[in-house]
Amino acid sequence: MRVMVIVKASPESEEGQMPTEQLLSDMLKYNEQLVKAGIMLAGDGLHPSNKGKRIRFQGEKRTVIDGPFAETKELIAGFWIWQVRSMDEAVEWAKRCPNPMEGESELEIRQIFEADDFGAELTPELRAKEERLRHEAAALNR
């Protein structure tokens, strides 16, 4: 199963405060362990929300909202995509993570939908198209 591990933002990350050299070193060591274990598929940090945009949908109407966004504790500062055998395995790996922020911080783990999760609504034609798009996207990222 694939999961997204979400690093929640902090007031410091939203202010654009960069991690210390020690924290960067600790995170690189942790990422190396994830890669060697075959767990990590992707991962990156995100700029503060003041550099972001939101698109609000109301029927056919689209509204662009400029950052920064309120409620820092609900914002994302970074993420990983992991391939794990179970949610328990993801939790065990997450517990080994260095604290991603200087103060209090939080990780959230969410399972990523797979094609089979969509049932009959994902027809063979849609499934084939989705598979083709995944291969095309992967080829672009090589």
Present the secondary structure layout.
Blueprint: E1 2-8, H1 11-14, H2 21-36, E2 40-45, E3 53-58, E4 61-66, E5 76-83, H3 87-95, E6 107-111, H4 124-140
Detailed description of the structure:
With 142 residues, the chain is α+β, with helices and mostly antiparallel strands. Helix content is 32%, strand content 27%. The protein has a four-stranded antiparallel beta sheet with strand order 2-5-1-6, with helices on one face. A two-stranded antiparallel ribbon has the order 3-4. A hairpin with a 2-residue loop joins β3 (53-58) and β4 (61-66). The two termini are 23 Å apart.
Question: Would you summarize the structure shown here?
Answer:
With 142 residues, this protein is α+β, with helices and mostly antiparallel strands. A hairpin with a 2-residue loop joins strand 3 (53-58) and strand 4.
Key traits:
142 residues, alpha+beta, Alpha-Beta Plaits, four-stranded antiparallel sheet, two-stranded antiparallel sheet, 32% helix, globular
Low-confidence region ranges: none
Summarize the helix and strand pattern as letters.
EHHEEEEHEH
Going by CATH, what is the homologous superfamily of the largest domain?
Dimeric alpha+beta barrel
Bin the strand percentage: 25-35%
**Shape assignment:** globular
CATH class of the largest domain: Alpha Beta
CATH architecture of the largest domain: 2-Layer Sandwich
CATH topology of the largest domain: Alpha-Beta Plaits
Q: What's the structural domain tally? A: 2
